[in-house]
Known about the structure:
Helix content is 38%, strand content 15%. By secondary structure, the protein is an alpha/beta fold. It has a single domain, classed as TIM Barrel (Alpha-Beta Barrel).
Amino acid sequence: MNTVRPSVRTVLGDIDPADLGTCDAHDHLFLRSPRLPGEELDDPAAAGSVLRTFAAAGGRAMVQWTPYGMGRRADALADLSRASGVHLVAATGLHQAVHYDPVELERRYDGLAELFTAELTTGLRGAPAGVRAGLVKVAGDYHGLGPHTRRVMAAAAEAHHATGAPIAVHHELGTAAPEVLDLLCGGHGVDPRRVILGHLNRHPDLRLHRDLAASGAFLALDGPSRANHATDHHLFDTVAALVEDGRADQVLLGGDTTTGSARHAPGPAHLLTALAPRLSREFGRELPERILVDNPARAFAAEWRLRGG
């Protein structure tokens, strides 16, 4: 098998996981959807300001989960990374069908795995040469998996097997995670340790979270974005329960800012200036390092390979 040492694929190239640094594991610098009219994240200057504030707080990496066709501004990511000094990991993949034009989506289904694979290995569409995705973003449905979701996840699994890329999953209101694992891992043979389950604290069922963690998957919890304020009051309890259950090595944290009105209130730096100190006081100074540095380095690293390798 044509493999290399594990690396994190950033928009500026592959890096040693040890060099990733303190990481916002789930966020959006850019995002556009017909479901969020007037709330587009589409301003490179504003994105640069967010990155500078994050870097000033000690942030060194950010994973942008905005997939293909949702205004991810592939053309701007490399310049923003260079200017801020923050490693950026970009996504290929597709979100739920409601975020796309139905006619374009129907055309896109043919060759979907090839699209994902090309964006992981050759380059993002619309980006300068060599700017590649570092993960595949997919999405479940509310308490289930519809035909669109199953087609996209099958393509994501194919791209994963071709490249080694991790797969990150949006869970609608935190639901359908067991079904996602059954499909990706049971149905398509993806190692659950290569799967990142997002938004689980939107459905604060701690027993379910423990069961999901037992699979080996990473659990990415929404951080203190205004867009996800409803999760704030139990975010720390969710983290604490997983830590106490011996699952600290599988927890990831991200700001997940998805709208223009939520951009600066309080922003991803809050992960480092507020939540990390709380974790340190509660569990000791070593825990924030594990959750914000060590875990992302493992979650987003891959032994990258080309199709057929």
